[in-house]
Structure formats: C-alpha cells, structure tokens
Amino acid sequence: MRAVAPTTYVRGVPSSAPSTPGSGTDVDPGYHDHLHWQRYQAFFPGALRLSAANAPEEQRWRWRGLDVHVDRVERPDAPAKVIALHGVGTYGRMLAPYGRLPALADLEYIAPDLPGFGLTGTALLGAKYSDWVACARDLVRRERARDSRPIVLLGVSTGGRLAYDVAATTRVDGVIATCLADPSRDEVRRVLAARPEMARWAGLLSLVREPLSAVRVPVHWMVNIAAAANQSQFANLVWGDELAGGGWISLRFARSCLATAPAVPPERFANTPLLLAHPAEDHWTPPLLSEEFFNRIEAPRRYATLRGAGHLPVEESGLADLDRAVRDFLDEFDLQ
Length: 336
Fold this sequence. Notes:
CATH architecture of the domain at 53-186 and 263-332: 3-Layer(aba) Sandwich
Distance between the termini: 53 Å
CATH class of the domain at 53-186 and 263-332: Alpha Beta
Strand order of the largest sheet: 1-2-3-5-4-6-7-10-11
CATH superfamily of the domain at 53-186 and 263-332: Alpha/Beta hydrolase fold, catalytic domain
Largest sheet: 9 strands, mixed
Strand content: 15-25%
C-alpha cells in the first residue's frame, strides 16, 4: 500500500494538485457538497442570486502547503479582473452575488477562501493575518503572470482592510472597499469585538505564547457576527455557517488581526486609486471609523454611501448605489 503523507491543515481535503505556485485543479469536495451558501441567495435581488447552474468554477491552488479554494468566472475577453476578498467570518463563495452586479458582470471574477475559512484549511498552529496578506498578494502575482490585464481588488467587510494592505505591498490597478477601519485602534477594536469589553483582550492575547496560541475558539466568541447584516435572518445564517461565523479561529489569528497596523500609513498610500463604498447603516463598523482613515489617503479616492445597507450589503438600495459607484470608479480610471 502506498504511504500517504500526513495533512498539515485542519479544514479542506488534500488533492493531487501540483505544488507549483499558481497551479489549479478542480476542487472535490466543494460547494456542491457544502450547500449553506445557497441559503444566502434569497436575501439578494433575483439577478444577483447564485444557483448550482450559474455558480463560479471551483479551483484549488497549492500555496505554502495549503490547498486554497478559489472561485473563478473565466472571461478571457474581459478587459480586467476583479479579485474579491472576504473578511473574518465569511468566505469567497458568499461574495459571488457582488460579482454579478452589472458593473462587474463583464469582468473576470476570482474569489479565494482565505486560510481558515470556507474550504481552505490552515496550518496546525493556525493562520495569522499576515498569512492572509501574503496569500492574497501571491494570488495577485499569480494573476499577473497569467496575463497583463488590470486587476481590481474588491474587499468586503474586513476584506476592505485586507485589500488596502495588499495594494500597499504589491501592484494592483484599483481597490474597492466597503470598510477601511483600522483594528489596531482601540475604538475600532471595541466595535469589532463580540462585546466592547473584549477589546481589552488584544493586550492579553499578546501574552499567549506558542503552542497555546494554536487554541481555537468559536468565531462568534471573538467578533460581532450578530452585526454582520441588518436583516437578523441573514446574520443568523452567518452565525450558523460552520465555514464562516459558525467556525473556529485560533487565538493566534485573533491576536494578529487586532494588533497588526496598516501595511503603510494612509498618507503613504499614494499610487492606487481607491473607492470606499460604505454601507450607511453599518452597525458593526460605523462609517465614521472608515472615513477617518479614508480621508488621510493620499491616492486618488472616491467615497460612496450605500443607502439603507448593513455591514454585508444585501438591500436593493445599497446594492444599486454600490453598482453605480463601482461603474463610475472603473470608468474614471479606465478599468473596464
């Protein structure tokens, strides 16, 4: 019997994918087996909803010993690509309806499950926020190697902060973010945490040493998943999704998210156009927290308010505003 190498990650299934960075194969099992994502679709307008028939192609990318799950909608003739980055407590497939917005529907669409969420595993000691930055950055470089089309990052929720950090450390052509709150600030940690008093944990977590930092706790113990959406039924779905808000994160990851400063101060973020499209009724990260950071950005920037929308925007008014803002942004910077 052939010996099988031990797995080094705690979620996801090993594949025979080649180890060359940038290689991809079909994922099995995939989101045809984990069907919770289908339950989110009822909350989106009909034209944005996914089904098994129109879902993205699933690929697996071998990265640093992990099989990173990637959703992709191939459009070889598209003028640009959009890479969608999720935040804590979500995963790539949850963002697919945003990729169906009319402003984005003609672009090639790519959405990874970042280490520890969705169908991507994590190292035995758990991922760190810096692993998310490195993974997203290497995915950008992978796409650059494939062809020369412009790349726009779409960061939803804490994925907005991630998109900013990736753009600060590697070349992309634009950033669209729904949130830019800096969790290294006390006032931001207070709103991100499951309870405001838990913001003090950032200092305590810094005292946790390996291997204790590998201890995992429920996501909703650490972050305010209940405020993920203004529609309580949607938020409850996120809470109960074992691949998202119902999953587990290591103390190592929580510590790194709370303690890591932006890759560069906003005054030095000067080269990449950025659109902040912030939900007006965001009860998790109020617009003011993002605006304070956004107003210091040196690069060309636009701001849009998503009327009536919560943290994960599903409301028609907010989605219409998002579509219009994205279209204007892409037109202004010749990205479509």
